[in-house]
Amino acid sequence: MNPVVSGGSRGIGKAIVEELVNEGYHVTFTYNSREQEAQDLVLQLGADKVRAVKCSITDLNDIEMLYGCVCENNETIDLIVNNAGITKDNYFALMGIDAFETVIDTNLLGAARVTHRFIKKMIAQKFGTIINISSIGGIMGPEGQTNYAASKAGLIAMTKSLAREMGKYNVRVLGVAPGFVKTDMYAKIPNQMKVKQLEAVALKRPAEPKEIASVVAFLASPKASYITGTTIVVDGGLS
Fold first, then answer.
1. Is 181 within 8 Å of 134 (Cβ atoms)?
2. pTM for this predicted structure
């Protein structure tokens, strides 16, 4: 099997790469600036099981290069996991419009660019799965994250529409919307704020990255063969 995971060098993306390798996939993952972390992951899992490709999902030339790496010798593409994303949080009135545009360009348009380049391949081969990593932020709309929430809500809508278009080609399109997850991003939140946030979570704790990755692996598997067009919320009861 031949999957692609964008933003796979750390956090949720890294956990997804590890989980897919455990499931027997040979994974190509992208990174943008975290080269050392990407190479460490290749060493950890083995170059025979993973491949790291430096790729900015805002750059069409990089995405074309990624496509060439993955589909060389006319190989099939089984799975795309659109995970790469960024945050530039601030209250909207104080946020530069460039911060809004950058987050949309990466989180939403980046996923669209990658998907668009590979989608005709999936149509031709008449199978494949696309999983978009959204966020509970795209459903609940937290303060100070209008740009991030808009980008992740856009992914949810894209998932629904694209699933309707692609079903006749036996291509499934799904989303996963995590809540609070123990990542580098979460670690930067002040402890007092974390305590307050977790009061609203039924399970009273953040998710481990592997708990998100296991849902992704399930959705990618034949066990989820009749699931498409929906976004699975994995938030510990926050919403």
1. no
2. 0.96
Task: Write out the two tokens for 17.
Answer: 């790469």
Distance CA 57, CA 106 (A): 7
> Catalytic amino acids?
148
3-state secondary structure of 47: coil
Q: Which residues contact 73 (CB under 8 A, 6 or more apart)?
A: none
Residue 85 burial (CB count, 10 A): 25
In angstroms, the CA 217 to CA 139 distance is: 22
In sequence order, what are the beta bridge partners of 231? 175
Task: Compute the C-alpha angle 173/24/64, nearest 5°.
Answer: 55
Residues in Cβ contact with 22 at an 8 Å cutoff, skipping those fewer than 6 apart: 217
* DSSP structural state of residue 106: I
Which helix (H) or strand (E) element contains residue 109?
helix 109-125
The pLDDT of residue 189 is: 81
Q: pLDDT at position 41, please?
A: 97
Question: Is pLDDT at 194 greater than 90 in this prediction?
Answer: no
> What is the radius of gyration, based on Cα positions, of the chain?
17
Residues contacting 87, CB < 8 A, separation 6+: 103, 145, 148, 185
Cα separation, 105 vs 227, whole angstroms: 28
